[in-house]
Design goal:
- It is a single chain.
- The protein has no helices and 21 strands.
- By secondary structure, the protein is an all-beta fold.
- The protein has 2 domains: about 180 residues, no CATH class; about 100 residues, no CATH class.
- The strands form 6 sheets. Strands 6, 7, 12, 13, 14, 15, 16, 19, 20 and 21 form a 10-stranded antiparallel beta sheet that branches. A 3-stranded mixed beta sheet has the order 5-11-8, with no helix packed on it.
- A hairpin with a 4-residue loop joins β19 and β20.
- The mean pLDDT is about 85.
Length: about 350
Amino acid sequence: MPWGPNTSTGACTGTSCWQDLNGDGVVQLNELSGTPTVSNSRFVNGVLTAAGNSIDPNAQIGRTREGVVGIQHELMPNFAVGVDYIYRKYDRGTTTYTIGYTPGSANGTLASLYTGPLTYTDPQSGISAPYYVICQGCSRPSGIGSISVTNPNYSVYNGVDISATKRFSNRWQMNTALTVQSNPQYYPATSATCVNPTGCNFINGFGNTSITNSSRYIFKASGSYVLPWDVNVAANYNLIDGQIRVESINGPGQVYGGTTGNISYTTLTFENAGTHRFPTTSVLDMSAQKSFKLRGGKETVKAMLDAFNVLNSNVPYYNSGQGINPYVSNNVDSAGFTQLQSIVPPRVFRIGFGLTF
């Protein structure tokens, strides 16, 4: 523990310090004088707490277990249907805990620190939501080392794919597929993700709140047909269930957070993941092409007409490429709750020409 500043020569200048009398660079009992001052961040109730970060030698890397079972049958020549069931479980990997608050320790469960739920009713929207506070006399981890251990969180994906395929014959072809899926996430009571249980009860075991796999269903269909005079027409259609929108309200602000300070609840979640979703996206694209052979086929001129979003769908959608949410805010108390920032691009026509020689 620190013993108050020495001069560059090692001499004591205060009432408590270490003076290296024999010059060996090792602290001896007879070289200490005065009353020591302790570090408030690490010396707690007479015990020197752990410092620094470490990794549990038993920590395990993330893994994915997958199983696929399917059947396909050709109903008639060049036309087949199929059904596949997909199961995936994502678990393990590492996560970081504050030392002394890891799973299995005395403070390794939420119930050991938090009490509640209490209920807060938002005066603006009238919506009520639960929240938790630190138990009286308890303290939250702060200012001490961390350790990386195996993550107890996991998620389970279940999906069914139903497909129909028509190989090219009689001047046309087609592919269709319907995927019905769910991917709930699970956070055990020892999870570092939900160290604070406020809001976690609305996510734990419910739909995945990330962009990945949060759509309950996806339908895709594409096909092409060769018209007379070798005019090729094609269409592609996508129907995608809206992404999850986790709505919130303004919270109570500062609440009791134990002996280490208050907890700030500026927003509160009040509903299960998947209760509200962004609108379903329905987009149809079409194209037509005609090739003209010149000089006995030595050169080819191709004329193309493409139409995107033929139905002119204008619903809000999650722009995954740019990470943009459809609305500025998901807080019902915010003006941005109904303020759009991303919608499906409007109908577009494109004319093109190509020359091959």
